[in-house]
Amino acid sequence: MSVSPASGRTVLVTGGGSGIGRAMAAAFAAQGDRVVVADLSAETAGKTVAEIEAAGGTATAVQVDVADEASVAAMVETAVSTYGGLNVLCNNAGVLDSMGLLEDISLAEWQRTLGVNLTGVFLVARAALPHLLASKGSIINTASEAGIRGGCGGPSYTASKHGVVGLTRSIAYMYREQGLRCNAICPGGVNTNIVQGAMSEDGFGRLSGVLMNAGAMAEPEQMASVAVFLASDAASYVNGAIMPVDGGWFAG
């Protein structure tokens, strides 16, 4: 089944400055979508936009803190005012936790991880919702293998990604009759800077052990291609799907 080409859609990608988000932004831009690249780092968002424009695409950079309601509102307003609407949201921004045991997790770490990974997804989806309903658009949330099993992350990361899975299903069910679709991808091990950096730091030994069971690491582009499919007409009847993209890790 082929993925139908884009036709001037506007796509908002959070966490678009690096890793999976950067690959998503590039993939949507390559098929003709106009992409709003949002990231906590204005510098990395700008680099992604520069790469897209150098390849002939159209993109705009926005600095955002997805855990801050006012910052999220400003991001969505920029997307809509720049391109006249919103068709696809890739809710991708996220952080790792320290992979510690429950007794080692501070309240500050718990709140920070859930603030970005779960509250951030809620805030962005809620702010984008009126525009996505108007366009009968699509939301693709980046969950994780840790959102569908218990041993792939620390307590706060695992809880946050399980929450993303539940929120995805809730949005899909509640808005299905209004033409809005919401799905989630659950990456396994992906070769990104944040993962490589974490594996080299003290306190992340468990992450290396977990990923040893994952098999070969995926590239960010392999996650992006699934997001492009889920946002396409080829996936028009796919709604509420929680899709492992892990090379078969979850099947074992």
Would you write up a description of this structure?
The chain is α/β, with parallel strands linked by helices and 252 residues long. The protein has one domain: Rossmann fold (3-Layer(aba) Sandwich), CATH 3.40.50. Helix content is 46%, strand content 15%. It contains eight helices and seven strands; from the N terminus they run βαβαβαβαβαβαααβ. It has helices spanning 19-30, 42-54, 69-83, 107-135, 155-175, 193-199, 205-212, 220-230, and strands spanning 10-14, 34-39, 58-63, 88-91, 138-142, 181-187, 242-245. A seven-stranded parallel β-sheet has the order 3-2-1-4-5-6-7, sandwiched between helices. α1 (19-30) packs parallel to α2 (42-54). The two termini are 27 Å apart. Mean pLDDT is 90; it is low at 1-5.
What is the strand content?
5-15%
The CATH architecture designation is 3-Layer(aba) Sandwich
What is the CATH class? Alpha Beta
- Label the structural class: alpha/beta
The total count of strands amounts to 7
Span between termini: 27 Å
Count of spatially separate domains: 1
**Computed CA radius of gyration, to the nearest angstrom:** 17 Å
Secondary-structure element pattern, one letter each:
EHEHEHEHEHEHHHE
How much is the average pLDDT? 90
- Main beta sheet: 7 strands, parallel
Can you count the helices?
Answer: 8
Major sheet: arrangement of strands: 3-2-1-4-5-6-7
Percent of residues in helical segments?
40-55%
The global form is globular
CATH topology: Rossmann fold
CATH H-level homologous superfamily name = NAD(P)-binding Rossmann-like Domain
